[in-house]
Design a protein that fits this description.
about 240 residues; alpha+beta; Immunoglobulin-like; four-stranded antiparallel beta sheet; 5 helices; globular
């Protein structure tokens, strides 16, 4: 029965850490837009866009495949190298499909709820399972320790595993059903969202807009040149699939 105690310790050190990943928006470094493919320059304001269209790319940034939630993140990077000032209105950014329909960006809150809808079930199950593993393993370890003292190692470990496992599953379900992780994730998304902003000479901006996942051929971007009181539309190719 001493092998059981060895197994428990091995499990704690190797298996459980693999379940530690959670949803989290990573820090997103970027290049200046003038060093990116497909950039456009308007009166010294340089703009580049990057659709986050693959599962690998999305997981690396958001810890989740956004396409599963029906969301296409698009990174927008801007650098005002000129002498004029601009205003950016994020709600005037539209994804344009191959059929010519326009789709406006989703709010960070709407994205958060979409992700919750598709992932909360698996999140609850995973957390409940992990908590159950933790409870069973720790219970078995403690029970085995008691068993060593009483001379009944196997019985102590088994009893500890049953009690600890049951408590762990209940704890896991409670944690999984909590909305705390959703709220925190929405806050992280909002922190990376491209909002309305002023771009004065020398300013740099980078952020995301979140489009409904569609087959897009281009992104429409609206800029307002404050210095000359002029509006400018720019169109960037996307070439994404639904």
């Amino acid at each position: 029965m001493r092998q059981l105690l060895f197994f428990v310790l091995t499990f704690l050190l190797t298996v459980i850490p693999a379940y530690g990943d959670t949803l989290e928006v990573r820090d997103v470094p970027f290049m200046l837009p003038e060093n990116m493919r497909g950039y456009q320059d308007y009166e010294g304001l340089i703009v580049a866009v990057v659709p986050i269209a693959t599962s690998e790319h999305s997981n690396r940034i958001f810890g989740f495949d956004m396409k599963e939630a029906g969301v296409l993140p698009v990174q927008v990077v801007m650098h005002n190298t000129g002498t004029k000032s601009f205003v950016i209105t994020a709600r005037q950014f539209f994804g344009i499909t191959y059929e010519g329909t326009y789709h406006s960006a989703l709010s960070a809150g709407a994205v958060g709820y979409r992700i919750k809808d598709v992932s909360v079930g698996s999140n609850v199950a995973t957390q409940a399972t992990v908590q159950g593993f933790w409870g069973a393993a720790l219970g078995a370890g403690l029970g085995a320790g008691v068993g060593l003292l009483t001379g009944d190692l196997g019985s102590g470990a088994a009893t500890g595993a049953i009690i600890g496992g049951g408590a762990g599953v209940l704890s896991g379900v409670g944690d999984g059903l909590s909305d705390d992780w959703t709220e925190k994730y929405k806050q992280q998304l909002a922190g990376q969202t491209l909002g309305n902003s002023d771009l004065r000479p020398g300013d740099i901006r980078s952020g995301f807009i979140y489009l409904p996942s569609k087959g897009y051929c281009k992104l429409r971007v609206k800029l307002f040149n404050v210095t000359d009181n002029r509006m400018k539309e720019m169109f960037f190719p996307l070439y994404t699939s639904e």
